[in-house]
Amino acid sequence: MAATFASRCSRVGRSLFGGLSNSSPGLFTTSHEITCNNLFTQQQRTFIQMGTVLKVVDNSGAKKVMCIKALKGEKGARLGDTIQASVKEAHPNGKVKKGKVVCGVVVRAAMQKGRCDGSEVKFDDNAVVLVDKQGQPIGTRVFGPVPHELRQKKHVKILTLAGHIA
């Protein structure tokens, strides 16, 4: 559940040996090959897309939801994006019942998200906060850390309900 911060590290250093990098894993690996390998691993990462099961981290009554569709991106949703989801598990006396189609804001994603200061934020799980049609949270509490990128996406109410902002 804790956020993992890592500074962005790119190996584009040059040495006296004609463009070879001494800090590379292999002795004769060029910096261009390392950059291409980093781009290749970034292309394999997945978004929160249709069929992804997410944990609900508010007290709306739902436990798990499955993403039906991402409302913004073509490929999927990232931190702060709104999705449509179907409730798969719910508490018996909650506001939200099993089988209901709801909207939610992604507050934690296992995919890395780069920040403007060069660091990256990555969470252990995929989590969502359920919201109504106007974008207001259904629950009154938000559990666990939420990223401060939600402020840029105009989800300030979720930030005020959260106990810890990462």
Automatic annotation (TrEMBL):
GO term, biological process aspect, one: translation
Keyword Transport: no
Keywords: Ribonucleoprotein, Ribosomal protein, RNA-binding, rRNA-binding
SUPFAM superfamilies documented for this protein: Ribosomal protein L14
Top-level taxon of origin: Eukaryota
Similarity section: Belongs to the universal ribosomal protein uL14 family.
GO MF terms held by the record: large ribosomal subunit rRNA binding; structural constituent of ribosome
Pfam families in the record: Ribosomal_L14 (PF00238)
Name of this protein: 50S ribosomal protein L14
InterPro entries according to UniProt: Ribosomal_uL14, Ribosomal_uL14_bac-type, Ribosomal_uL14_CS, Ribosomal_uL14_sf
SMART domains registered for this protein in UniProt: Ribosomal_L14
A single Gene Ontology CC term: mitochondrial large ribosomal subunit
Listed transmembrane segments: none
